[in-house]
Design goal:
The chain is an alpha/beta fold. It has 15 helices and 16 strands. 51% of the residues are buried.
């Protein structure tokens, strides 16, 4: 196509802001489908990395956005009280039963939410060090990136004094032993040799490590880790940006893992594509200093109105129940495929946060990195959009809208099964994927 959307995109949009694993164009979108420039419909199994929580064109989102534009009570909650911002904060506090003495801060993305938490915790507690996991992705701005450890961010140095520990991975346990105990042993060593726990302000947790490989931790691992940190006054931050708000089959992913955080960060799906993030944290942190974390247009009427509609829709339509049912349906289908395709090493996830670890050898678990890129590209060619994650970029990831239907879940399994079969049969070449660097 002459002067196509992809050609125009390549001329004017910076590559550093792109994550492309296939030549997708988006001219329109409705429901759970993306409409390409040529009119082709593609089932969206990524949901813009989980941001499109209610899919596209949901009536509740459209009505709320229009209401925000019409009322336009404020373009910001920074200079005065705004009904939509105050009401959304009240909604979020009610959604977090542990938040008995907490307040809310609004931003535009999970990146700025986690960045704000870092700065505020350090200032309010006087503790200058933080702890996080290898493979973590907490954001793409300098602060939140500095407590992350995803391979895509190796161009940025970690924060000075950052304490990092492995994420307990039952499929790839450290040393081949007990995945959880190996982490606890390392934590005990760090606390006794060079990382005094009284210097650590907070532990950042992804209750399901998504970009690190969609890793589901062993039962009880995070609850025990939280207990060990709390003995030393270390605050617990649950990063629910990608894996919370109904996606795990319940409201919060920390509930599924059996622990209670001190601080929660929200983003992505909170606005179902409209930029908004939120932090729920103790008053002692949120109110220690006025005008500490200012972003001019946070709390604007459009974003806060949409976020309220998203929360209400999840509850009214019981979308967390749909996430649990459709997730179980997809994982059952994928595990049936595992019996037919040696490329599938493991299927794992919670609700509609699902990972398919691809390996070249099930015994050695050698990561099938190139094959994962081919499966994702072939899936797009067959009519479904999803991407891959993981420390070795070998885990196709599914984070579709919570509105995914039973028929669409069956379609997803069928497309993925065909894509894997086609890759195993050599129908996708190295040259085919060479143009799409991905992670």
């Amino acid at each position: 196509m002459a002067n196509s959307l992809l050609e125009r995109d390549a001329r004017v949009l910076a590559g550093i802001g792109k994550l492309r694993t296939y030549p997708l164009t988006i001219a329109n979108a409705r429901g759970n489908r993306l409409i390409e420039e040529d009119g082709r419909s593609v089932l969206d199994l990524s949901g813009a990395a989980g941001a499109a929580l209610l899919g596209y064109g949901h009536p509740a989102v459209i009505a709320a956005a229009n209401r925000g534009f019409t009322e336009c009570a404020s373009a910001s909650d920074m200079f005065g009280a705004s009904e939509s911002a105050v009401a959304l904060a009240e909604d979020l506090l009610a959604l977090c039963p542990f938040a008995t003495d907490h307040k809310v801060w609004f931003g535009h993305s999970g990146s700025d939410a986690n960045d704000m938490v870092m700065r505020a915790v350090q200032a309010a507690t006087g503790r200058r060090r933080f702890m996080s996991f290898y493979g973590a992705y907490h954001g793409g701005v300098s602060g939140s990136m500095s407590v992350s450890s995803h391979p895509s961010q190796q161009h940025s140095l970690p924060r000075a004094g950052l304490v990092q520990i492995p994420y307990a991975n039952p499929y790839r346990p450290i040393g081949g032993g007990d995945a959880a105990q190996a982490v606890f042993d390392q934590l005990d060593f760090l606390f006794s040799a060079g990382a005094p726990p009284e210097d650590i302000g907070a532990l950042f947790i992804e209750p399901l490590q998504s970009d690190g490989g969609m890793i589901v931790p062993p039962p009880g691992f995070l609850a025990e880790l939280v207990a060990r940190c709390r003995r030393h006054g270390i605050l617990i931050v649950s990063d629910e940006v990608k894996v919370g708000l109904g996606r795990p089959g319940c409201w919060h992913c920390y509930d599924a893992e059996g622990f209670t955080p001190d601080i929660v960060t929200f983003g992505k799906g909170l606005g179902s594509g409209v930029p908004i993030s939120a932090v729920v944290a103790p008053r002692a942190i949120m109110d220690f200093q006025e005008a500490f974390a200012l972003i001019t247009t946070t709390g604007n009427a459009v974003s806060t109105s949409v976020a309220r509609a998203v929360l209400l829709t999840i509850e009214q339509e019981k979308l967390y129940e749909n996430a649990a049912a459709r997730g179980a349906q997809i994982m059952a289908g994928l595990r049936a495929l595992q019996d037919k395709h040696a490329l599938i090493g493991e299927v794992r996830g919670r609700g509609l946060a699902i990972g398919i670890e691809l390996v070249r050898d099930r015994q050695t678990k050698e990561p099938a990195t190139r094959e994962a890129a081919k499966v994702v590209l072939r899936g797009y060619q067959l009519g479904a959009a999803f991407t891959y994650v993981g420390m070795f970029s070998n885990v196709p990831e599914l984070t579709p809208p919570l509105t995914l239907t039973e028929a669409e879940a069956d379609e997803a399994v069928a497309v993925i099964g065909q894509a894997i079969a086609d890759v195993e049969n050599g129908l996708v070449s190295d040259e085919d994927v060479a143009a799409y660097a991905g992670w």
